[in-house]
Amino acid sequence: MHQSKKIAFIRKTLVPLASIHVQKILEEQFPEYKVELIDITRILIKRPGILIVNGFYTLKEYWRMLFQRKKKFKECFFSTSYIFHKIKVLMEDYLSLDNYVFSFQMQSLYDASKEGLPNFVYTDNTILANLDSSITDKSALFPDWFIELEGQIYKNARIVFVRSNNVAHSLVKQYGYPQEKVKMVFAGSNVQRRYDRKFDKEYTNKNILFVGIDWYRKGGPELVDAFRRVLESHPTAQLIIVGCIPKVDVPNCTVVGKVSLERLNEYYEQASIFCLPTRMEPFGIAFLEAMEHKLPIVTTKTGAIPDFVIDGKNGYLIPIGDVHKIASAINKLLNSPEVCKEFGEKGYSILEEKYTWNNTGKLIKKHIVSALGNFEKSV
Predict the structure, then answer these.
(1) What is the pTM of this model?
(2) Is 214 within the bounds of a domain?
(3) 275 with 134, same domain?
(4) Could you write out the DSSP letters of every residue in 130-177?
(5) For residue 274, what is the enclosing H or E element?
(6) CB 254 within 8 A of CB 229
(7) Residue 54: domain span
(8) Interatomic CA distance for residues 245 and 258, integer angstroms
(9) How far apart are CA 264 and CA 266, in angstroms?
(10) Is residue 149 a part of any domain in this protein?
(11) 76 and 214 share a domain?
């Protein structure tokens, strides 16, 4: 490794916010190298011809899914064979073996690898891992040919960093990726508490918080149905919906919509319970944010969630779509501020042990240093 070389940090766009944290991790853990940000969306915007042609490919390859409303155009636009190939070529042309010590890409929607340059992937999901959620029909995901392209991303990666056990399992069992090349490095919260570790929440205001942009996928309708039942036992309970603006016809409900991280922090502070009965969840940073604020959690047993929400310890895991059990779990917590406190403290201890960006950074560096050492010995 040479001092003059850089690290290529590649992301699709600014969202998700984890990109900001991971870029900072690389800068802190590898201070001897400059971390160069490569934003694929910005590169493509400067090439409108590619975007125009890809629009036609999106319609050509996904017309049936679009017509059946299984997918949205925006979701399919970055998942065509054409854009996948174009991004691969652009990255191969852009990355120079003389300028970079390794490349590091966020998510597994594109292949940013270049032969001879170690590429590391950090992802919170695989396409086939979604089959373990409420989606059991493979045809509702992506076409087989795109899943094969996704497999190429992993094949060309030196290491695939994951946040959860379900994704690690998917890579090995569903994609045939070598288990020794899958490394669990977890993730951290996007918001920070403004109070210290000893802060004691009251858990008496009966505020139930929902945070999510995709109202239906996150189980919003089920939560509203459950909240109607909760009001029968707790008529002063309040439901606060942050992140989206659904049409909700239920008493004691406040729809907030999108807010800044600072305001989001305030809603977590004011809540007594966090409820997100999601139907499908790649990872769920919002759960870590809730744990950061010592909130007991009511959610579903899907995706990565069982890794950090332990049923009966820091929350309740409910079968997907079970409105009765969602209401019952919320009522249990509203009936006992003591249990809320116990769950909140346990959730915070789980977070402190594993789910911090500082911990993720140390693990990423450990595995990259080992992989680069092995790589240099083999060339």
Answers:
(1) 0.90
(2) yes
(3) no
(4) GGGTT---GGGS--HHHHHHHHHHHHT-SEEEESSHHHHHHHHHTT--
(5) strand 273-276
(6) no
(7) 6-188+356-378
(8) 8
(9) 5
(10) yes
(11) no
Region of 71 please: left (phi>0), alpha (psi -120 to 50) or beta. beta
**What tens-digit pLDDT sequence spans the chain (379 residues)?**
445 799 999 999 876 788 999 999 999 999 999 999 999 999 999 999 999 999 999 999 999 999 998 899 999 999 999 999 999 999 999 999 999 999 999 999 999 999 999 999 999 999 999 887 666 677 778 999 999 999 999 999 999 999 999 999 999 999 999 999 999 999 998 877 655 555 667 899 999 999 999 999 999 999 999 999 999 999 999 999 999 999 999 999 999 999 998 899 999 999 999 999 999 888 999 999 999 999 999 999 999 999 999 999 999 999 999 999 999 999 999 999 999 999 999 999 999 999 999 999 999 999 999 999 865 555 4
Query: Any idea what the CATH number is for the domain that residue 373 is in?
Result: 3.40.50
Note whether 217 and 176 are same-domain residues: no
Can you tell me whether residue 126 is helix, strand or coil?
coil
- Cα end-to-end span (Å), the chain: 12
CATH number of residue 332's parent domain: 3.40.50.2000
Asked whether residue 268 is domain-assigned, the answer is yes
Residue 49, helix vs strand vs coil: helix
Q: Which residues contact 296 (CB under 8 A, 6 or more apart)?
A: 203, 272, 273, 274, 314, 315, 333, 339, 340, 343, 344, 347
**Domain count within the chain:** 2
Strand partners, 300: 318
> Are both 239 and 336 inside the same structural domain?
yes
Residue 155 and residue 48 share a domain? yes
**Domain assignment of residue 330, yes or no:** yes
Point out which residues pair with 32 in neighbouring strands: none
Instruction: Indicate whether 11 and 137 sit together in one domain.
Output: yes
